């Protein structure tokens, strides 16, 4: 029986020796393409994202793990805040408070019971009351809401409302609101912000979406600029021309000519004391006369929120300031629009 036992031991040891040799042979191969158990080819299952051997089925790698940080901030990589909306000046609390929704459903989408609905109504009421701890915060909340409403009505970008909210907040901190209506200060802050952002709007345009008279807005913006030391460069008529041209649907050549005329006007002696928006409207009208376009003075006046009389007077000053024409103010002072258009076309030809 002894030889039999020796034979069995030898037979059992052979597979072990064979496996050791097989393991040694697969060590130099790449673990990314060959199985470490049988040397077969590794494939990846797209549904489970597992890397397994197509021969023996062993799983070489499970789901891929991202070893990078779980946070990502595109504005500032040093800020590791993980949750919450970005801070905004257009809310009185800068967006740090919590709002309770009005859906009356739980986390699973099921409707709340009547008792739970009553509880949520009470929580909403007290949450709304505690958001503003004093009258200053309540006024700031009303002002930022008004700024957002007017900003949207005027079609201005969010940066304008952000700057307007900062201006109003500074005025509130320095007690400049006392004696002025909240709507007047909000309108004035928005007007100043639009000027600072290079997207000016006239007082008439602000008044069209505001709930306050234009005179009160003018006084409020004067106080804000004086007390806060805000310096605003005079508006250029060329900043109004693209918007007015879009409203009137004029050709590009008229728009370019209007910009040229307004630029020469601002460099002349006539620039002092003239509203840039009125100059822009008159420049569009003058350019339309040169290119024989049928643009009525009343249509331009309505689109630019000015008067036809102002357009006629400013048109003659624009022609006088234009170095491309030899027409002086005295020559065209008593001419009507038809004769002025004829003279301009003759000069252009």
UniProtKB/TrEMBL annotation:
Which species is listed as the source? Answer: Halosimplex pelagicum
Zinc-finger is among the record's keywords: yes
Write out the biased-composition intervals (Low complexity).
20-37
Cyclin-like domain location? 145-226, 239-320
- Biased composition regions of type Polar residues, renumbered to the chain: 1-19
Protein name, entry field: Transcription initiation factor IIB 2
UniProt lists compositionally biased (Basic and acidic residues) regions at: 67-82
**Alphabetical GO biological process terms:** transcription preinitiation complex assembly
UniProtKB keywords:
Initiation factor, Metal-binding, Protein biosynthesis, Repeat, Transcription, Transcription regulation, Zinc, Zinc-finger
Q: Name one Pfam family in it.
A: Zn_Ribbon_TF
GO CC annotations on file:
transcription preinitiation complex
One annotated GO molecular function is: TBP-class protein binding
Family per record: Belongs to the TFIIB family.
Instruction: Give the span(s) annotated as Disordered.
Output: 1-40, 61-83
